[in-house]
Amino acid sequence: MAPGETPPTFHGAQAPRSSLSAWQDYDADVPEWGIGELDHAGRWIPHELPGLLVLAPHPDDEVLGAAALIAAGLRSGAPVRILAASDGTGSHAPENIPADQLARIRTAESEAALDELRTLGAGSSSGLERLRLELPDGELSAHQAALTESIGAALEQMPRGTLLAAPLSHDGHSDHDACGEAARAAAAEHNVALVQYPVWLWLHSAPPGSSRESEAAAEVPWSAARSIPIDPELAEVRARAVAAFASQLGTELGTPVDRGPGEPVLTSHMLATVLRDQQIVFPAAPLDFEGLHAGREDPWSVTSRWYEQRKYTLTMAVLPRRRYRRAYEPGCSIGGLTQLLAERCDEVLATDISSSALEAAARRVPESNVRFQQASIEDWPAGEIDLILISELAYYLNDSQWAAVLGRAKTTLSSGGHLVSVHWRHPDAQAYRSAAQIRADLWGVPGWDVHAGYQDPDMLIDVLGPSGPSVAQAEFLD
C-alpha cells in the first residue's frame, strides 16, 4: 500500500454504510464504562487513573477517537501523553506540498488542538504532552515491531497503572489496525490496561447484527463496547479542537489523496458520524474468555473435577454468616458457585464478559433471586454489597484493574460484609500475579481484618472485611 492510501474498505469521501440515527440508537444500549462516573458537574471522571498514554496513527486521530479519554485524564489530574506514530504526510500528494512542510503543518495543527483540550485540565497544562515517532504514514503495518517498542519505552516513563489507549485493531485502516495490534503486544508485555478507540469503524460498518455490517466489523468485540458521555463543555472544546485541523477540513493545500475535487479528508458527514454524544471505546480483555466458553460447555471442568467441587464446598464453608443480603460474583463463568450462593443469599448479581458463559449459567441457575449480567470487572455495581466473591479472577487483572477492584470493594462492602478470595496456587503463564501476591494485596487493605481462610498446596481462600465479631461471638458469646 502506497503512503497516503486507505484500504478499499472505506475512505472519507464515501457515504457512511449506516445512518447517524442508527448509530445513535446503538449508543443508547452501550453501557457506560464502569471505571468512572459522572461528577457533580456532569463530567465523566475515572475513579483511578494514574496516567494515560494515547497512540495516534495520524494527527487528528487523538481528537476524533480519544478526546473523551484525554479529557478524563486531564480532569482527573493525570499525566497524559500523546504518542504520534506518523506526521500524517500521506494525506496530500508530494507534488502538491512537500512532505516535510506538510509534517510541520499537521504537527502544529495537532498541538493547537491539544491546546484546546488543555483548557479542561484540573491543574497545570503541563500534564499533556505530545511525542513524535515520525514513522511513515500509510506504512505503519511494516513498522509494527518499532511501534510496540516505542509504546513500551513511553510506558516506562509513565506512572504505574497507566492506561494505554490505541485505535481499534479492526478499525478498517491499515495504519489504525497496525497501531491497535502493536498496542496489544505492548500492553501484554508491560502489564498495562488497554482500551481501543474506533474512528473509521463508524463509517465502513453498521451496528452489530445489521444486514449492512461489513466483513471487517464482524471481528469487532461488540459485547466489550463501553460508552463515555460527552458533556456540553467537552463537546464545545472538542469542536474547537477539530477545527484546528484546517489541512484536513479544506482543500487549501490541494485535493487530498483519494478524494475528489473539492472534497476534504474530514467531510461533514464523516464528522457528524464520528463525533457523537457518546464516545464508544473497547476495553481489552486479557484472555479470550468468550472463545473458551463458546468452544466448550465446561472449559474449567467444574462439573467433573472433584478438585472444583471440593473447592466450592470449602468456599461456602468458610463464609462467616449463615445468610447474606446482597452478593456480587464477577467472572461467574457457567455458574457453578453461583448455584451455591443462591441458597445463602437474598440477591445475587453474577457477571461475566462471555455471553456464552452466561447462557450456560442461566440454564444451570434459574432461581429468581439470581440476576446474570454481561459485564467486565470494571462495571462495578452501585450500592452497598455485603458479600463479594473474587474466585479465580484476580490474576487475570492488570495492575490498574486490580487496584481499582480493591478500591471499589473497600468503598462498597458493608460494615458487616465480607470479601472472599479463592485462587489457584500453581504457576499460570497467563496470570499477572500469583495467589500469594493476591493474598498479600488483600491483607494490606487498610481497615480490613482476616476473618477466615483455608490453604492447601493447590488453593488459597481468604475471607476479609471490616472488623467484626467472630461467628461464635456473633451468635452466642458475650
UniProtKB/TrEMBL annotation:
**CDD domains named in the record:** AdoMet_MTases
Keyword annotations for this protein, in alphabetical order, are: Zinc
Which biological process annotations from GO are given for this protein?
A: glycoside metabolic process
Pfam families per UniProt: Methyltransf_25, PIG-L
Q: Which InterPro entries match?
A: GlcNAc_PI_deacetylase-related, LmbE-like_dom_sf, Methyltransf_25, SAM-dependent_MTases_sf
A Gene Ontology molecular function term of the record: hydrolase activity, acting on carbon-nitrogen (but not peptide) bonds, in linear amides
Q: Where is each Methyltransferase domain found?
A: 330-417
Q: Which residues form a coiled coil?
A: none
Q: Which PANTHER family match?
A: BLR3841 PROTEIN, N-ACETYLGLUCOSAMINYL-PHOSPHATIDYLINOSITOL DE-N-ACETYLASE-RELATED
- Recorded protein name is Methyltransferase domain-containing protein
Specify the species: Nesterenkonia jeotgali
